[in-house]
Every structure is written in C-alpha cells, then in structure tokens.
Amino acid sequence: MDSLLLLTILIVFFALAFDFINGFHDTANAIATSVSTKALPPKIAIVMAASMNFIGAITFTGVAKTITKDIVDPFAIENGSIVILAALLSAIAWNLITWYFGIPSSSSHALIGSIAGAAISAAGFGILNYNGFIKILEALILSPFLALGIGFLMMSLFKVLFRNSSLYKTNKGFRTFQIFTAALQSFTHGTNDAQKAMGIITMALIAGEFTTSTDIPLWVRIAAATAMGIGTSIGGWKIIKTVGGKIMKIRPINGAAADLSSALIIFGATYIHLPVSTTHVISSAIMGVGSAQRVKGVKWGVARKIVLTWIITLPISAALAALIYQIINLFF
Q1: What residues form the membrane-spanning segments (predicted)?
Q2: CA–CA distances in Å: residue 42 to residues 136, 180, 234
Q3: Which of 5, 77, 165, 297 sits 20 to 30 Å CA-CA off 237?
Q4: Torsion sign (Cα): 101, 102, 106, 107
C-alpha cells in the first residue's frame, strides 16, 4: 500500500478515536451538574448527551475550517500527513492520561498544542500561521474568564429574581429546567468539540492530495459526529465527580445558571468559528456561579489544580507531538 494512503487511513482512524475519547472525556462537562443535582438519572443523561452531541456536530462546520487552515497552512507543509498523525497521537495520549486521573483537562488545548508542536518539529516556527494561531489562543484564554463573569452575573440575576420564592419550590422548578439546560449544553458541545476532528481529517485529505478544498466533506461530518456520539454514550464518571461536586456543592439553581452561562459562551464561539475548551468554559462557569452564591463555598484548591492543568496542557502536548513526529518520521 502507498505510504501516503496508509498515513491518511491511520489519521482518519485516530481522528475518529480522538473524537470517541473526547466524547467520553467531555461527556461529564455537559451533564455533570444535572447528574449531581439528580435532575437526570446518569444513564438517561448520557443517552440525551450522546444524541444532542451528534445533532450539534453535524449542524456546523465553521470551527472545523478554522482548525484546517488557521494553525498551519495545510497546502504548504511538507510531510503534512506525518505532522497530523503525530499531533493526533499526542492529543490522544494526553486526553487518556488526564481522564485516568480524573482531571478535567482540555481536549482543545491538547489538539491545538499538538498540531503546533508537530508542525514546528517538522518545519520550524515559521510554519505557523501566526494570525490564525494567535486568534485561536486568544479564544482559548479569554473564554474561561468570560464564562466566569457570565456565570457570576447569571447566578446574581437568579438570586434577585427568585429571592422571595421558597427554596424547595425554586430547586424543584430548576431541577426540571436542568433537563433543557443539559440538552442545550450537550448540543453546543457538539457544535464546537466534534468540529476539531473534522478539521484534522480534512487537513489529512489535503496533505494526501485527496482534496484541494478546505470544505468539510459530508462523510467526514457524519463519521466524526458518530464517533463523538458513541464516545459520549460511554461516559466519563471520574470527571463527572470532579466537575459535578468537587468544585462546589451544586444545587439545581446553580446547575442551571452554570449550564446556561457556558452554553452561551460555547455557542458564541461556534458562531464566530473559533474553537474553545468546553472543559474550561464549563468549569469556569461553575466557579463563577459559586462565587456569586458564596466565595468561600468554592473549593479553590480543586480549582487551582484544574487551572494548573489548563496551563501545562498546551506546552506538554506540543513537546510530546514534536517528539512523536521525529519518531514516526524515522519510519516514513
């Protein structure tokens, strides 16, 4: 078999594996609050999340196009297929490590850092599309702060609107409302996160000279959406425990406020074709909601551990991808 075709097949396989892992790694983010408040039983929450992730994934392609062309130029890079394969293997390895330890790390940071690291290893720093890469980094950095602020404002608004309501009735009503917010959260997750594997596969098709367009083929959209849906159906219980309970004690009104805040940020990013970390956004929204409720109620020690993981993910995944590229390059 031609080595370029073999590399392309491997990339498609590992890209779908990345989406599958992303599904069970990030399922927790979308449904953690609704499960922790018992708004939804875990099995029903996961089935709903899988379905809404699939629908969201096949609805949009803007983020996929950004991944395809804004980090490096897929038409200019030599050994593009090896670069992409190395990036995928690095991102998958980091996702599995953080999942094993129950740390809500960012699949987006891992993938984007890995693409940059592998590309630099192949062709030097000049290969990066700095305008696009900086725009992506800005979105990744700013989105958690926006989620923190909007979560704080959303919870503050709810406190004013429901200050005269009984706590029991308020929580009962919001527990039902959380079914909608969890579905919305899962849909927006699909609109952004599943796009990343679509962009990677399209980069591989360009590198292998199987296409000359950055448009996302229909089969790529369906395959990536399906992989994420199946991964979501498996679930990520370790991360559910961290996001759903270790950051703060979540009640239905808190969970609904966090879900709405993070869904707003994620869908806003999808609308302007920018990838963001759904993990970062959702965790930050929970912290913002908790701060509006009671600053001391947020377990900032756990939050610091999460933030540290956010910071180290991009450079570690970049270095790992650079190393993997050099190893693969020896064989091809």
Answers
A1: 44-64, 76-97, 109-128, 140-162, 218-240, 252-272, 307-328
A2: 34, 15, 11
A3: 297
A4: positive
Structure token digits, residue 323: 């190393």
Q: Which amino acid is at 169?
A: K
Cβ-count burial of 142 within 10 angstroms (0-12 exposed, 13-18 middle, 19+ buried)? middle
Number of structural domains, the chain? 1
CA atoms within 13 A on the CB side of 169: 5
pLDDT tens digits for range 67-124: 998 999 888 888 889 999 999 999 999 888 887 776 667 788 899 999 999 999 999 9
> Could you give the C-alpha distances from 103 to 28, 107, 192, 265, 308, in angstroms and in order?
11, 11, 20, 22, 10
Structural domain span for residue 74: 3-331
Residue of 71, 25, 37 lying closest to 178 (CA atoms): 37
Structure tokens, 27 = 């399922």
Alpha carbons within 13 A on the beta-carbon side of 73: 11
End-to-end CA gap in the chain: 13
- Exposed, middle or buried: residue 268 (CB in 10 Å: 0-12, 13-18, 19+)? middle
**Residue 270, class by beta-carbon neighbours within 10 Å (0-12 exposed, 13-18 middle, 19+ buried)?**
buried
Residues 104, 27 contacting (CB under 8 angstroms): no
**Could you tell me which residues are beta bridge partners of residue 128?**
72
The mean per-residue pLDDT over the stretch 237-264 comes to 72
The DSSP bridge partners found for residue 72 are 128
Going from the C-alpha of 236 to that of each of 21, 109, 161, 270, the distances in angstroms are: 10, 19, 34, 24
Nearest-angstrom CA–CA distance, 246 and 252: 16
CB-CB contact of 132 with 66 (8 Å): yes
Q: 105-125: string of b/e by CB count within 10 Å (b at 16+)? A: bbbbbbbbbbbbbbbbbbbee
